[in-house]
Design brief:
The protein contains 18 helices and twelve strands. With about 450 residues, the protein is mainly α. The termini are far apart.
């Protein structure tokens, strides 16, 4: 099997493109004799950029998807296209034609709605481009592993342009030449390319080349049933990475967007996906990208990770986002405190970010909700004394001190713990209160409680 992933480098690698890359990669890795070719289809020279190429390569690297040959750029293969173009012109399979859009429409009307057929002109004629001759008889049949057979009447297809006046190739011509020269045996790509396939088959036939096996993947929709876009949340691999997802979780989830091994299995290791994946089990129906389900799956992977490895990933993520805590020696303990609670790395700053900030500005709503209660100031003052005396000042020691105080005061634990939480974190939601205090240490915890008491006293005095 020789497969190819061939994105157009006009922007970020979208989620649909990432799934296409993954499916090709899984098939290529099934056997040592298989190969995956990375090809950058940059014939749209105005929209293709070097920056987009770097973004695509970065996304593939983060996903853990490697390739065996390439990356090849179509803009660096002009000599190969020119050779094949000359062959088609010399054989009469292609010709120069000057028709613009209005003339093409008029020509189609004159043929009763059938495809446009041009009039050859000499090369160099102003406005001339190269068209491929399409026969009037017969059909061009697309045999698709997923969708079955689709027949296109040749008489309804235009003699389509394959090269511009300066001989630079257009997309369908370049793709067909590349697939032929790179000996691609299987083309697995999105359903949006299905309309291109009959034209590419006609080019391959004119070249005397055997066509590859085609499989057009169903499109991705959002949970509202509409085509996936930014309104549904993250739309690219880079956005998923920035949102704190793990590459192994993304691989697992993307594999299930249109494919399934059985009715019940949801979690697959990468090795299991390589072994079990088959293109024949891909559905024809649009697949639904649900970021909530991805977050749920990501949480499963986070909880199953070694805490040290998760802390290293968290540190890298925090550094990329410019968030506090990256490289801090307390980060592993902070991650351990929230590992069972989070679904993505992006939730870490909300739960433990307070530990890596010199000053914490209380959330006004949290302060009003907790600190305005009757007895909050007195409870916090007594909690301060209990924390000052706690030995040792670790999770167990802090818990014992605060629970004993709550029992002595005949208070519900939550009524005591919440003022302490708001005092040290500024929020009503954070890592567990005992873990949070242990992360800060005695000195910093008492400093923050004192600041909260001063604020409360000042408010009362005012």
């Amino acid at each position: 099997m020789r497969l190819r992933f061939a994105p157009s480098p006009t922007g970020f690698l979208h989620i649909g493109g990432a799934r296409t890359a993954l499916y090709n990669w899984l098939l290529a890795r099934k056997s040592p004799g298989n190969a995956l070719v990375l090809r950058l289809e940059d014939t749209d020279r105005e929209r293709s950029t070097d920056e987009a190429i770097e973004q695509i390569l970065d996304a593939l690297d983060w996903l853990g998807l490697d390739w065996d040959e390439g990356p090849f750029r179509q803009t660096e293969r002009d000599a190969r296209y020119a050779e094949h173009l000359d062959r088609l012109l010399e054989s009469g399979a292609a010709y120069w034609d000057t028709a613009a859009a209005e003339e093409v429409r008029a020509g189609k009307e004159a043929r009763g709605g059938a495809g446009y057929r041009g009039t050859p002109v000499p090369e160099g004629t102003e406005g001339a481009a190269v068209r491929l001759r399409v026969p009037d008889e017969g059909e061009t049949v697309v045999e698709d592993v997923i969708r079955g057979s689709s027949a296109f009447e040749n008489r309804l297809l235009d003699d389509f342009v394959i090269a511009r006046s300066d001989r630079t190739p257009l997309y369908n011509f370049a793709v067909a030449v590349d697939d032929h020269e790179m000996a691609i045996s299987h083309v697995v790509r999105g359903e949006d390319h299905l309309s291109n396939t009959p034209r590419q088959l006609l080019v391959l036939k004119a070249l005397g080349a055997e066509p590859p096996v085609y499989a057009h993947l169903p499109l991705l929709h959002g949970t509202d049933g509409k085509p996936l876009s930014k309104r549904h949340g993250a739309a690219s691999v880079q956005e998923l990475r920035a949102a704190g997802y793990l590459p192994e979780a993304v691989r697992n989830y993307l594999a299930l967007l249109g494919w399934g091994y059985d009715e019940t299995t949801t979690f697959f290791s990468t090795e299991e996906l390589i072994q079990l994946f088959s293109i024949e089990r891909v559905s024809r129906s649009p697949a639904v990208f649900d970021e909530q389900k991805l977050a749920w799956m990501n949480g499963h992977y986070i909880r199953g990770m070694d805490t040290g490895a998760l802390a290293r990933l968290a540190s890298e993520w925090l550094e990329r986002q410019g968030a506090p805590g990256a490289g801090d020696p307390r980060l592993p303990a902070a991650v351990a405190a929230v590992q069972e609670k989070i679904s993505t790395l992006a939730e870490i700053p909300d739960l433990v970010g307070f530990a890596f900030q010199d000053e914490v500005e209380p959330d006004p709503k949290a302060w009003e909700k907790v600190m305005s209660r009757n007895g909050a100031a007195g409870a916090l003052a007594q909690a301060r004394d209990a924390l000052a005396a706690a030995e040792p000042f670790d999770e167990a020691g802090v818990e014992q001190a605060l629970r004993a105080l709550a029992e002595r005061l005949e208070m519900k634990p939550g009524a005591l713990f919440q003022p302490v939480r708001v005092a040290i974190t500024g929020r009503t939601v954070s890592a567990g209160i005992f873990e949070s205090l242990a992360l800060l240490g005695r000195e910093e915890s008492l400093r923050r409680v004192d600041a909260a008491l001063e604020r409360l006293t000042g408010s009362a005095g005012a």
